[in-house]
Fold Asialoglycoprotein receptor 1 isoform X1.
Amino acid sequence: MVAESLSLQRQLQTKQNRSTVSSVCANTLYPAMDSDSISLEINMERTHSNMMCSEEGQSHTKRRFMLMTNCLLGFSYVLILALFVIILSKSIPGSSKSVNTTELTYSWNSASVWAIGSKNGSQSAELTLEIEKLKREVHDISTRTETEWANITLNMEKLQDEVAELTKKMREQKTLPTSASCDNDWHLLGESCYYFSVTSSDWFKARAFCKTKESDLVVISTAFEQTAINNIIKAKGLELTRFWIGLTDMNSEGTWEWLDGTNYNTAFKFWRAGEPNDAGGNEDCAHIRTNGEWNDVHCTYAECNAICEKKL
């Protein structure tokens, strides 16, 4: 009995020892598991917080980028509007300038308000400075444009005065009486006096006759002059008379020259059809036929009168 009692006590003691060991192990193991869980939860919370902060930062960056983009687009619109108004003001002078300037001022003021409301702090201040700078440049351009228009107007007025003065002088010259410019029996045409002789001779004597009257054989350089001479001939009843003119090629055959040096090649011509033809090989002087047309004939032909011209 005593032995059984001792055996039971030993078993009971063993169980108690095991229970104690289990309790100690449990207490040791479970707290460690609780510490890991807490650490894991803390890391997860930190990761979530970092993700939230990152998302907020990205959202703030996007909003800032969109704000700056809108500001730049608005600024570009205002700049384009300003350039359009400047071009329009240059192409339309007069009263439209003041209207364009008013519209431009309103546009700049509106742009300033928009810019100030769209950006804060230093960005808003920088944009405002840029707008003010552009406003000053626009004002300078407008001022220069007005000055240029004033100079152009002044120059136009001066030119108009000069034209009026020249016109007055031309009218005074045209209204001079014939007796004051030409001698008796002379006819005034433009800036020359013309004399129609009543006797015939060869070309050389006709020219010598004109020289005695301080003149020379006529040089016909325009259609108006040709028509006027023909009309005078008809008015004097000399339609059947031929007249020498100051045109010859005696220096070089085929090279016609006017006595006063007028360029034959570019000057007016009124030759009869087929003339000059140098018939017989010695037709070196020109005369006016009875129908008013020119013809070449030998210079010793003595059946032509002279038309003398005296420059005023």
Remarks:
- Residues 2-91 form the longest helix (90 residues).
- The helical segments are 2-91, 96-118, 121-174, 178-181, 203-212, 223-235.
- Strands lie at 187-189, 192-196, 216-217, 242-248, 257-258, 285-288, 294-297, 304-311.
